[in-house]
Give the backbone structure.
Amino acid sequence: MRRFAGSYFGRLSFFIVFGFVLFLASNRVDELRVYQGATVAMYVVAIASLILLTGYSGQVSLGHGALLAIGGYSATLARNHFSAPIWLCFVVAVLATALFGAVLGTAAARLSGPYLAGSTLALAVGLPSIANQFNILGGEQGLLFDVGAPPASLGADFTQYKWYFWIAALAALIAIWWLQNILRSRFGRTWRAVRSNEVAAELAGIHVGKSKTLAFTVSSGLAGLAGALLAMTISTVSPSAFPLTLSFALLTGAVLSGVTTLSGVMIGALVLVATPDIADAISSRFASSENVTTNLPGLLVSTLLILVVLLVPNGPVEQMRTLRTRKSTKKTR
Amino acid sequence: MIEINRRKLLVASAVLATGGLVLSTVPAQAFSPHSEVGVTNSSIKLGVTLPMTGAASPGYNKLPSAMKAYFDYVNANGGVNGRQITLVVKDDQYVPTLAVAKTNELILKDKVFALLAPLGTANVKAVAASVNPGRRGIPTLFVNTGYSGFANKKAYPTTFTLLPSYIVEAKIIAQYISENFAGKKIGLLYQDDDFGSDALAGFKQAGLTFTVKVPYASGTQALPTVPPTWIQKLSAANVDVVILFGVSSATAAALGTAAVMKYAPKWILGSVGGDATTIKAVGVPAGVLYGATGASFLPATTDNADEYVKLFTTINAKYNNNAVFDNNVMVGMNTAYVAVQALAAAGKNLTRKGLIAAIEKSGAKFASAGLVPLNFSTTSHVGYSGYWFGTYGPSGDLKPNGGVYTVYTTDSGTGAVVKSTYKRPAMPADGLPTQS
């Protein structure tokens, strides 16, 4: 039993049970929650991608929004120009973004700290506006990305948003399950070794550059998937769908989740989705100015970010783990 | 490590399993409520998305308070069939993706009965694709865009337009140019999306050719370096007449930059951007606007002899904090005015289907401030389809050329531009619709 729970099949069955619960939940809650659930799933993938890059491989990205844009646009182009089936669009998004990430990662492996942060930031600022230069990308107005209505076999009451949720939740479950496994593999150990001490890792025979590039590629692939999911939930891609604030929001989500571990990834995603709602509730009660309503979510998220960095720098999950370990050591004493 | 994982997994699985069992006992929510969404015996909830902040917001952000002012006036007089109207306003910053998110909120969270006057071609299109009010049967009344495609009943079954389409406007402007500026060199500034391409289609159909066409990407008008490039291109082409077919903020940027660069062709302003208050609000001297040509389908805001202008001015003073009475206020109030007619026509048993049917049945006879007829019918979801031309005075107010409203009408197809003989019916008593 012990071996089973920690094993490959244990994790697999955990994800299957979790998926089944999500499936049940999607039939019981109202449409708004289902739609928000799809957005949470999208954020889970995006934040996991960032945690992998930052927490496990020690590289910083301030420009993840740009990678999401590549995923979103490639899925859309595959759909609109080659009428690709929807699952293939997601595969294309993952592969195209991973390819881009591999190229970018080669350069990124040579950069570190503020230089890497700066260049990824520049990417987030510049890349989405490329869409304005080429007609095929639809300019500022963007392109429509239509995954189509849910299959008729699911019944007439099956809403579009539930369909989005099913797709997004399934994609997220598969992505996180796969990521869990890769992090426990040789690659995961290599990345952590490089993050902890590059010189020691190199002495142990690890090719640091290769390892970093691979992490960047995998992370990009996941970001591409998130981008395609984002495009699906809003049915369009346009430069304004991937603003700089998206990159920052993802980074905030990663910090809130705890960058050093994947297990808190839901926390950041939930906070990002819930914040506008909370801000809305506050502003509708206390203020009527549009500027307050527009800026309050950003203010809340930023405040939360500062608090987390000050109080629980490793994220809530890691903090709880530390607390528990402390308690148990006290007991044994 | 393994032990912690095992315990964690077991606990998590137990929680999940219990959660799953609990969830499966909760009855599925009934999605077909007994009464219509957003309507009670005493209230009707409507929703709008439009730019309240951001580059494109100047001018347009005056629309909601004007609409609300007319609704307040109606509410104070007993509402529509005893129901008070509320309007939920969401800021989309003229960004399509935000429009989608905000419309979702309106429909799923605020549970509005219908969408009223959502603004922006790209925004309404994105919403139609993603939120799909058409498939959900949610009326999208009087979209605040002139994109001709929204008249397509098949693609947008629950959408009604109010503004004349950009094709109609372009055809009429082309007619005006052929009557007044035949043989002159013409330049055009337009928004590089469906809003602009609709106008281009209209100009093309009317056979108007341009010496120079300057496109701009939505939002770039707010960048200080961009508007000077427009003026350079226009001035380099040495054109006599320039048509500004952009949003108010872009028109203001063009005129302001032209004033600084001492560039003064004959300006013709499209109805979307021909808003003097916005232009003046961003610091462009009124002198630039003086003598420019503009178009409108409503009476001039300064026409105090007009009964609708009188009514709206009174309502503006009482319910809208006496805001500057400009074309935005006029458009907002008139949109609300037509919406109230539609709600009243749908009768006491108000449903979404009934509202759509009522507009199709009697929409052509709705009272409105418009000087051109409404074209609603079972086969047409098109509102107004005509314009009159005027000249901006020294204070920036548009007045009809020669002191009379000479109205031209046409359609978005191949129809000819004709001088209209339409006589607007008298306003119902106190500007309140007769109720069933």
Remarks:
- The two ends of chain A are 30 Å apart (CA to CA).
- Chain A has one domain: 2-243.
- The mean pLDDT of chain A is 84.
- Residues 208-234 of chain A form the longest helix (27 residues).
